[in-house]
Amino acid sequence: MKEKTIEEMFAHYQPDLGDSGEYMAHLTKKLEAAEYAKQYKAEQTKRYRRMMVLVFIAGMLTGGILMLITLIHPAWLVPEFSAPTLSTSLTTVFPKVCLLLAVCFISLGTTGLVGSVVLNKRR
Amino acid sequence: MKREQFIAILSSEQESLRRFLLALCCGDRMEAEDIAQEAMVKAYIASDRFEERHKFSTWLFKIAYNTFLDHKRRVHGYATDIEEAVQVADVARTDDAFAYQDLYEAIATLPIKERTDILLFYINGYTVKEIAKITGSTQMAVKQHLSRGRGKLRQILER
C-alpha cells in the first residue's frame, strides 16, 4: 500500500510547463545561435586531427630515417673492448644518439596516431 | 544529425525532461528552466557524436543530469539535504509549485543521487539499467538508491 502511495504521488505530478510550441520556438532561436559554436568546435576538431596526422607522419619518417642511419653506421662494427680514442668515442656515441632520437620521434609519431584515433572517435 | 531532425526529436522529449528537472530542482522553476535550456543546447552541439544505436532520450537525460550537477557545483556548492529542504520552503513559488509543495519537500530530503534515481524511475519510467546509464552508476548502486529513497519517502508519508 505504501509503495502504491509513492507511485500515486508521482503519477499525479503534472506541473504546468507552459505552451510547448512557444517553448520550442524560443529554443530553436537558441539552437540557431549555438550553430556557430557547433561549427567552430567541428573546425577545431578537424584542425587537431590534421595536426595529429602530421605529427604521426613526421615522427615516423624522422624516426625511421634515424633508425636507418643507426643501423648502417659502421660504428656498430667497432668492438666494445678496443682502446677508446676521441674518434672511436664519437663514432660509438653517434649511433646511440641517433637511436635515442629515433625512439623519441617514433614515440611522437605514435602519440600523433593515438591522438588522431581518439579525435576520430570523438567526431 | 541535422538541426531540423534534432528539433523534431527534441520536441517529443522536452516536456518529460523539463518535468524531471523541475522535480530534481524541487520546484525551483527558474533553475530548472536554465538547466533544461543549457542541457538542450549542449546536446545539440554534441549531436554529431550521438550514435543511432543508443536511445536518444537516455543520452539527453544523461547530458541534463550532468548539467544539473555542474550547475549545483557552480552555484550552490553541494548543499546538505536539510539546507535544500529549507530552500524549498523559503523561495517564492508560483501557485503551481504550491500544489506540489509536499512532493518537493519530501524529495528535497533525499540526497541528489537517490532523488535522481527515484525521479527517473517514477516520473519517467526508466528501468534500473537505463537509470544506471544516465547517472553513470552501476545497476546495484541504482537499486540501493531506489530502496533507500523509497524507505525515506515512506517515513515522510507516514508522518
Annotated CATH homologous superfamily of chain B: PhyR, sigma-like (SL) domain
Spans of at least 5 consecutive residues with low confidence of chain B: none
Taking the alpha carbons of the first and last residues of chain B, their distance comes to 50 Å
The oligomeric status of these chains comes to heterodimer
N-end to C-end Cα span of chain A:
50 Å
The tally of strands of chain A reads: 0
Following the backbone from N to C, one meets helices and strands of chain B in this order, namely: HHHHHHHHH
Task: Specify the helix fraction band of chain A.
Answer: over 70%
Order of helices and strands of chain A: HHH
Number of extended strands of chain B = 0
Radius of gyration of chain A: 31 Å
CATH topology of chain B: Butyryl-CoA Dehydrogenase, subunit A, domain 3
- Please summarize the sheet with the most strands of chain B: none
Radius of gyration of chain B: 16 Å
Helix tally of chain A equals 3
The backbone outline of chain B, from C-alpha atoms, is globular
In total, the number of domains of chain B comes to: 1
- Percentage of residues assigned to helices of chain B: over 70%
Low-confidence stretches of chain A: none
Class computed from helices, strands and strand pairing of chain B? mainly alpha
